[in-house]
Specification:
alpha+beta; homodimer; globular; 4-stranded mixed sheet; 108 residues; 2 helices; 4 strands
Chain lengths: 108, 108
């Protein structure tokens, strides 16, 4: 098996309750990861797309954050209901889901 | 600040001692991450290159594993002594360090 066609990075970084930065884990990113893992398998993408959990992806205020490489696309505020669209439009169709794309903001 | 010119992913996944898969953490990847963080700052790359720690990058037997996106390059068995070369040749020069590139092997 060659290297992945795409790599999907899901931030599951966790910070203690009350931390002013918050964290993607607090926003439910582990559930997103689990759901995406199932979707990739169901769609037969799991051998082409490598799914990885990460620590902080440096956009804490816009979480949950997901990055798709090698497209260098960062998604902000992803919800479970968005995952089918990300799979269909981006991972299968090759077109990023523009409405979810992270704006050009400073890294946190 | 726009999205990163490159994203460097360092697997720091940890497994308990005795686990047959081993882990990049056991191979010293957290030390690699710390060293790379310093190098990026020293070379003024820290605002162009986003450095992230990840969970498993699925090449456990070849750790420590580092991936560089959007080049879709995976490195195997990276040692601290390799990091200067990765910075100079790849992150500054744009040419992957071929001797460290992961072979086309199945994901683990």
């Amino acid at each position: 098996m060659p290297k992945p066609e795409r790599q999907v990075l899901v931030c599951v970084n966790s910070r203690p309750p009350g931390n002013p930065k918050g964290s993607c884990a607090q926003s439910g990113s582990q559930t997103l990861f689990d759901r995406l893992k199932t979707l990739l398998t169901d769609r037969g993408l799991d051998r082409r797309v490598m799914l990885n959990r990460t620590y902080c992806l440096k956009h804490c205020s816009r979480g949950p954050v997901i990055a798709v490489q090698p497209d260098n696309v960062f998604y902000a505020g992803v919800e479970a209901a968005d995952l089918d669209e990300i799979c269909a439009e981006h991972l299968e169709g090759g077109k990023p889901v523009e409405r979810l794309v992270m704006p050009d903001i400073p890294w946190e």
